[in-house]
């Protein structure tokens, strides 16, 4: 399957106009306790305040808004560990589209319940995201649904990139933006938006060391896969999406890997220092900032808290961590 054309900065501006009637800008808050922790001036972009508790809803609304009547009548099928599925379920409900979400066995129950609450049909298939993604193609063929890639879709990338547009509108002199990466739409969108406005803004992305497919692909500038050994569902992708990777190759300044222990600590620190709830993937931006804090000294830093959909079990694990 060929990779679609890359989105442009104009596409991001168009997406902002498209989603604004449905999604107001999320807050960008400054936290002095995080300043002390990192030795920088730290702001948090609260994508955990979105209606679905995650940034991906921006892309879902942008995509559904651009579907033709015929495509809406077909319905869509997509694979998700949770947040992308919630995004598509939420947006499909807004626009009256049938949505089938294929999720791995054992997917986060909080996210599954949310997908169903928005009217999506949830199908469990496979042990991980990659198996779920393959099953989508079967359902596409059997039911005539429109397959929607969670990464290789320009409208999704342009939609989620609006989070970075909002950061720069609120904080024009931001120097560093740190964004988590699973499939790559959010990180690629952050790169495209930031570098189009001000090439001097540093964009750093972060992935779980237990699922480093995107990192290996970025490093090699070629397709690489990796096994998945992380509890962070939003970072648990075993194969790269090549459309976002092309933007990362062009614009990304640095790529950080963090282990599950660092993610647990970051969830707890967001709760303690910023009084906000982050899921492990959403807390990855803070985990990365802690790891590269020497490079952040004295700078204005925006952490994209990409989602807050954490299960009670995951939260207990994070609160019980000792370091």
Polypeptide structure, described:
The radius of gyration is 18 Å and the shape is globular. The protein has a 6-stranded mixed sheet, sandwiched between helices. Strands 5-4-3-6 form a 4-stranded parallel sheet, sandwiched between helices. Strand 7 (about 175-180), helix 10 (about 185-195) and strand 8 (about 200-210) form a beta-alpha-beta unit. It is built from 15 helices and 10 strands. Helix 3 (about 55-65) crosses helix 8 (about 155-160) and helix 13 (about 260-275) packs across helix 14 (about 285-290). The protein is of the alpha/beta class and about 325 residues long.
Topology record:
Blueprint: H1 9-19, E1 28-30, H2 32-38, E2 41-46, H3 57-65, H4 69-74, E3 76-79, H5 83-95, E4 99-103, H6 109-117, E5 121-124, H7 129-143, E6 146-147, H8 154-160, H9 162-170, E7 176-180, H10 185-197, E8 202-208, H11 213-220, H12 242-251, E9 254-258, H13 260-274, H14 284-291, E10 300-305, H15 312-319
Parallel strand pairs: 2-10, 3-4, 3-6, 4-5, 7-8, 7-10, 8-9
Antiparallel strand pairs: 1-2
């Amino acid at each position: 399957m060929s990779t679609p054309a890359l989105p442009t900065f104009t596409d991001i501006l168009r997406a902002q106009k498209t989603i604004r009637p449905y999604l107001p800008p999320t807050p960008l808050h400054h936290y002095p306790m995080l300043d002390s922790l990192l030795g920088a001036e730290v702001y948090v972009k609260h994508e955990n305040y979105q209606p679905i508790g995650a940034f991906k809803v921006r892309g879902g609304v942008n995509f559904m808004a651009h579907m033709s009547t015929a495509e809406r009548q077909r319905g869509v099928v997509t694979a998700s560990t949770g947040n992308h599925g919630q995004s598509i379920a939420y947006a499909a409900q807004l626009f009256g589209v049938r949505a089938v979400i294929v999720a791995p066995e054992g997917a986060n129950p909080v996210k599954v319940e949310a997908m169903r609450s928005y009217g999506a049909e949830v199908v469990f298939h496979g042990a991980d995201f990659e198996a779920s993604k393959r099953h989508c193609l079967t359902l596409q063929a059997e039911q005539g649904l429109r397959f929607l890639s969670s990464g290789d879709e320009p409208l999704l990338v342009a939609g989620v990139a609006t989070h970075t547009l909002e950061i720069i509108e609120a904080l024009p002199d931001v120097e560093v933006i740190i964004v988590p990466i699973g499939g790559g739409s959010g990180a690629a969108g952050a790169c495209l938006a930031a570098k189009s406005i001000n090439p001097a803004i540093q964009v750093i992305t972060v992935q779980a060391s237990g699922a480093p497919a995107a990192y290996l692909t970025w490093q090699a500038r070629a397709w690489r896969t990796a096994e998945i050994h992380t509890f962070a569902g939003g970072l648990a992708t075993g194969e790269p999406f090549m459309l976002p990777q092309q933007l990362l190759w062009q614009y990304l300044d640095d790529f950080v890997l963090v282990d599950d222990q660092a993610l647990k600590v970051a969830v707890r620190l967001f709760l303690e220092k910023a009084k906000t709830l982050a899921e492990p993937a959403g807390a990855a931006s803070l985990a990365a900032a802690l790891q590269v804090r020497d490079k952040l000294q004295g700078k204005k830093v925006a952490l994209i808290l990409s989602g807050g959909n954490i299960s009670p079990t995951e939260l207990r694990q994070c609160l019980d961590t000792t370091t």
